[in-house]
């Protein structure tokens, strides 16, 4: 089915939705695809209703301007196939229904075209779909970006880093069976061609408390269960483990080591494979598993009371395993778990109480696991690092897309230090979001030359300051409490907070509150009024969390990972390390800095229900998240000025049919076209503004009215377009026919006048002639030097044609010569000599032309003895000949060998005659087809015998070579009838030549030698 241009096909089952602004008219069915088009944009109920309606139609994505709101469908909607990816590639954001791929693609294109680093911030509650969204984005890039072999390794590693990080950093919680228990920021680096070439991951605040404790219905990190389920038996035995999670205290606190939705065994295989792809060595994996196993053994380490009431370890086997797996000294470990150092150097120790020992053990487990996780991230980063040496050329021209998948706002019954950090992080991100969104709005107004109208919004900086301000902020007070001498306690800390922060509008404690609020805040709690709502935090244990664990023992570990994670300086240095809160504050500040340097896009994830069920939309739960994500605030900022903005061309293209002045095409400036259009539509001045490239419409109502008008006009438009189309077609046909007739007329006239001087009558014809001559040459030029064909030029081009022909020949010859190999060159040179000597002189010459001259006719048949006799003079050519005695003309088989300075005649192994080239006077041959030749040498020379009469089948070749080597090209005589030769002592012999039917050699009259040569080509 073919669709009109404003229809696009979307949806997996071939359903057709109307998209782009067309969706606006279908708004009654599925709401609006962009919240800025909500008429009642301040109403939370309208907002949620829109989400609900779309969710009911399985439309989980909706925009707020450029922000994507995503509702977790809790089922596979089949909207993430490769075909879907292709659909979103290179398509403008608003032209197609909202999707995570649209955000991915838009970000990628912005990075490529603007060469500016980008980031996508994904936020939302646990289980809202953040991690899934970030994986979808990564998959989109992995599939759609160009890759080469090297890059495909990086791409695989980027993808494979997910299962590894999830195994070590994710766990089953009540909200999500695969909940990320750490914040993650991942940079993907692209080269100038837009191919992924590297990556880097930053991890934030792993929830370490999970290592030692899980709430009911929750699990520890996946890796523990995966190892126990999937690890090979030998491996488990080596680690001292049993294949039964029930046996490990740290794994059963939540009473659900098995979860139906998780297959630990197959996940283990995936993780093992991923570790290999990422490039982990076997020893590293072993060290890592030793740490995992040691955490389990720590969990099973029990304490009891000794004879003197001191705390002691009651589970010896665990201690043995621990010392082996951690690579530390057993007694030292025992002491570390049961005693406390009083000084940093650890000379003085005091015994720990039972509770303290348990806490020290748990602290050790958390520290070891936490640091191993950090090591793991660092290791993955090494393997994802952009290798300059490989891609030197692209250095400096790469760009980055960052993906932030970080915990959303959290409020529980009891909120501890971890929730505090998470919520503080959200405050910071919200601030960044407001700053950047406002900034980009403001920038757009500025760029378009529209006056900025200040937007009222709640700036949460006041809460960020409350937490992080120097000296006065929450974290500073916490640091101070931890560092001051004496025993800090939770209560003293709370009092200090009250002293310093009392009176702050966003800080309340039981003591500070009054009336109703007082009841809601416990005595050991403080309340922060966050931008998203109030949260009570328990101070209980706040300080313990910050205290530094005894790490002396682990610093000495043989385990490579641990020795890299725990530095000796940590325990020897007098300086107290930073508290966890300060560390977090600093890492957050760095993250904000990273994000600020990039162009942000946002994905806001919402969880529709707590039961992880598909199709259920719990309004109260969604309302809560809409509030906590600050979506209404977001919409308000976006809607503060204008609800809708589009580039002039897009706007005009869509609505031009609504105004006779702009239909069917507007010829002038786009801005004027839009002005004409909106004037015709009756827009009131307060309803819109015209910027430099865009129209800004204040209320959605205005746009909807315009859309409705378009809808109403469509049938009429259809007829109009149809009529127009038919008319246009026939007009075009008639025009073409007229044009053709005109051309034919001109041609005929020109032909009649073709021999006249150029005049208006023959102008067209002559030009056509010239043009077709030149085009014939262009299309069909001579193909080789031997191709002498050339089109006949029109008279006006005769001279040009000659020039062209010469140039063409020269070019071809030059190209031909350039292609000639040295061997062939030699051959050609010899052939040239042959032609100089024999052309038109000897009858057998024409036949010899196509036959190649060979290097030697004798191959390797030279007699060794002869070669030895010749010594240094190398034989350059040899040929079999027949020698005729000068007297009696007896024929004798000989070999004629040519060296660089003489020729020799050889009979078997004997050197019969040597002819120095210097002494060679001339060479005689007949003009017929025979193979006779006479080498004339001076007879008075004693050394040399007299002239030599030879016959050979390759006479042209032999004489050419001999004449060339002896430099006697001018000394070759070609005789018509007879050749005279010296016999000895002044006597002469004669060879007479005649033509006949076949070659005959006989003794003739007067003692002459009579040679009859076959007549081939009668001349
Ligand atoms: N787009 C989606 N399509 C289908 N299911 C999803 C989608 N997003 C999330 N889910 C489901 O929700 C679960 C929780 O998502 P996840 O991304 O892990 O949440 P978060 O990272 O926000 O805690 C996933 O395991 C998956 O089953
Ligand atoms: Mg997650």
From TrEMBL:
GO cellular component, one term: microvillus
Stretches assigned to the Myosin motor domain: 31-711
GO molecular function per UniProt: actin filament binding; ATP binding; microfilament motor activity
Keyword field contains ATP-binding: yes
The UniProt record lists the keyword ATP-binding: yes
Record Pfam families: Myosin_head, Myosin_TH1
Domain TH1: 842-1015
PROSITE patterns referenced in this protein's UniProt entry, alphabetically: MYOSIN_MOTOR (PS51456), TH1 (PS51757)
Residues the record lists as binding ATP: 124-131
Cellular compartments annotated: Cytoplasm, Cell cortex
GO biological process terms, semicolon-separated: actin filament organization; actin filament-based movement; endocytosis
Region span, Actin-binding: 588-610
UniProt keyword terms in alphabetical order: Actin-binding, ATP-binding, Motor protein, Myosin, Nucleotide-binding, Repeat
Family: Belongs to the TRAFAC class myosin-kinesin ATPase superfamily. Myosin family.
Protein name (database record): Unconventional myosin-Ic-like
Lineage, opening ranks: Eukaryota, Metazoa, Chordata, Craniata, Vertebrata
């Amino acid at each position: 089915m073919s669709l009109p241009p404003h229809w696009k096909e979307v949806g997996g089952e071939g359903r057709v939705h109307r998209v782009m602004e067309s969706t606006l008219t279908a708004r009654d069915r599925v709401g609006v695809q962009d919240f800025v088009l909500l008429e009642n944009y301040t109403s939370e109920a309208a907002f949620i209703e829109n989400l609900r309606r779309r969710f009911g139609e399985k439309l989980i994505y909706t925009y707020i301007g450029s922000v994507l709101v995503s509702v977790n469908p809790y089922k596979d909607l089949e909207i993430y196939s490769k075909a879907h990816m292709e659909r979103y590639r290179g398509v403008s954001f608003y032209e197609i229904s909202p999707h995570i791929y649209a955000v991915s693609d838009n970000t990628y294109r912005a990075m490529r075209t603007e060469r500016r680093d980008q980031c996508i911030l994904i936020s939302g509650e646990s289980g809202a779909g953040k991690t899934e969204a970030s994986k979808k984005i990564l998959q989109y890039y992995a599939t759609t970006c160009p890759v080469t072999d090297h890059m495909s390794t990086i791409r695989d590693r980027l993808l494979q880093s997910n299962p590894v990080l999830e195994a070590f950093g994710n766990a089953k919680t009540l909200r999500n069976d695969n909940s990320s228990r750490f914040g993650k920021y991942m940079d993907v680096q692209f080269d100038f061609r837009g191919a992924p070439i590297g990556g880097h991951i930053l991890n934030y605040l792993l929830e370490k408390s999970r290592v030692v404790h899980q709430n009911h219905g929750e699990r520890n990190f996946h890796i523990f269960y995966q190892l126990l389920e999937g690890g090979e038996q030998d491996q488990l035995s080596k680690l001292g483990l049993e294949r039964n999670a029930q046996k490990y205290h740290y794994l059963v606190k939540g009473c659900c080591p098995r979860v139906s939705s998780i297959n630990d065994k197959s996940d283990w295989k995936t993780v093992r494979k991923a570790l290999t792809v990422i490039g982990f060595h076997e020893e590293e994996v072993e060290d890592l598993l030793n740490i995992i196993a040691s955490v389990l053994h720590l969990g099973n380490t029990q304490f009891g009371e000794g004879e003197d009431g001191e705390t002691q370890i009651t589970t010896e086997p665990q201690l043995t395993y621990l010392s082996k797996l951690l690579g530390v000294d057993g007694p030292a470990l025992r002491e570390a778990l049961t005693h406390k150092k009083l000084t940093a150097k650890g000379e003085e120790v005091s015994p720990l109480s039972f509770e303290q020992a348990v806490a020290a053990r748990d602290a050790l487990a958390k520290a070891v696991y936490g640091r191993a996780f950090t090591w793991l991230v660092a290791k993955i980063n090494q393997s994802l690092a952009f290798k300059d040496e490989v891609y030197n050329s692209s250095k400096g021209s790469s760009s980055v897309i960052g993906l932030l998948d970080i915990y959303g706002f959290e409020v529980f019954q009891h909120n501890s230090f971890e929730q505090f950090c998470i919520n503080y992080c959200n405050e910071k991100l919200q601030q960044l979001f407001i700053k950047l969104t406002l900034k980009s709005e403001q920038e757009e107004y500025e760029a378009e030359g529209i006056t900025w109208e200040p937007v009222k919004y709640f700036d949460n900086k006041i809460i960020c300051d409350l937490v992080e301000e120097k000296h006065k902020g929450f974290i500073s007070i916490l640091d101070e409490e931890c560092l001051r001498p004496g025993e800090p306690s939770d209560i003293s800390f709370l009092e200090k907070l009250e002293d310093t922060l009392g009176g702050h509008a966003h800080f309340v404690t039981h003591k500070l509150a009054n009336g109703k609020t007082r009841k809601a805040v416990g005595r050991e709690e403080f309340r922060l009024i966050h931008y998203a709502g109030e949260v009570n935090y328990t101070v209980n244990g706040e300080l313990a969390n910050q205290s530094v664990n005894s790490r002396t023992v682990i610093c000495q570990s043989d385990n490579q990972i641990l020795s890299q994670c725990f530095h000796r300086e940590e325990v020897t240095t007098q300086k107290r390390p930073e508290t966890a809160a300060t560390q977090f504050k600093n890492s957050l500040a760095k993250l904000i800095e990273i994000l600020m340097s990039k162009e942000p896009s946002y994905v806001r994830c919402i969880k529709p229900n707590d039961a992880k069920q598909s199709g259920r939309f719990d309004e109260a739960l969604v309302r809560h998240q809409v509030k906590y994500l600050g979506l209404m605030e977001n919409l308000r900022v976006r809607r503060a000025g204008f609800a809708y903005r589009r580039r002039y061309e897009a706007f005009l293209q869509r609505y031009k049919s609504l105004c006779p002045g702009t239909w069917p095409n507007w010829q002038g400036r786009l801005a004027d076209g839009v002005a004409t259009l909106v004037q015709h539509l009756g827009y009131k001045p307060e309803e819109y503004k015209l910027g430099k490239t865009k129209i800004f419409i204040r209320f959605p109502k205005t746009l909807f009215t315009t859309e409705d008008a378009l809808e109403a006009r469509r049938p009429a438009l259809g007829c109009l377009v149809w009529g127009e189309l038919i008319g246009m077609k026939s007009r075009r046909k008639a025009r073409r026919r007229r044009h053709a007739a005109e051309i034919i007329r001109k041609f005929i006239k020109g032909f009649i006048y073709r021999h006249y001087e150029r005049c208006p009558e023959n102008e067209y014809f002559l030009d056509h002639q010239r043009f077709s001559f030149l085009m014939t040459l262009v299309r069909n030029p001579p193909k080789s030097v031997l191709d002498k064909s050339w089109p006949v030029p029109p008279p006006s081009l005769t001279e040009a044609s000659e020039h062209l022909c010469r140039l063409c020949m020269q070019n071809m010859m030059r190209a031909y010569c350039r292609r000639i190999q040295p061997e062939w060159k030699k051959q050609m040179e010899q052939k040239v000599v042959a032609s100089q000597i024999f052309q038109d002189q000897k009858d057998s010459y024409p036949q010899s032309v196509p036959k190649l001259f060979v290097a030697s006719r004798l191959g390797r048949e030279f007699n060794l003895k002869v070669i030895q006799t010749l010594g240094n003079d190398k034989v350059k050519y040899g040929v079999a000949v027949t020698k005729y005695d000068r007297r009696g003309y007896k024929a004798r088989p000989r070999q004629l060998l040519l060296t660089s300075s003489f020729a020799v005649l050889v009979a078997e192994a004997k050197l019969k005659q040597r002819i120095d080239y210097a002494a060679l006077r001339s060479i005689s041959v007949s003009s017929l087809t025979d193979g006779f030749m006479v080498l004339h040498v001076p007879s008075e020379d004693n050394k040399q015998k007299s002239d030599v009469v030879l016959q050979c089948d390759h006479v042209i070749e032999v004489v050419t070579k001999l004449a060339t080597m002896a430099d006697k090209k001018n000394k070759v005589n070609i005789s018509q009838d007879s050749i005279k030769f010296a016999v000895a002592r002044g006597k002469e012999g004669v060879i007479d030549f005649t033509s006949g039917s076949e070659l005959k050699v006989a003794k003739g009259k007067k003692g002459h030698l009579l040679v009859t040569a076959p007549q081939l080509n009668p001349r």
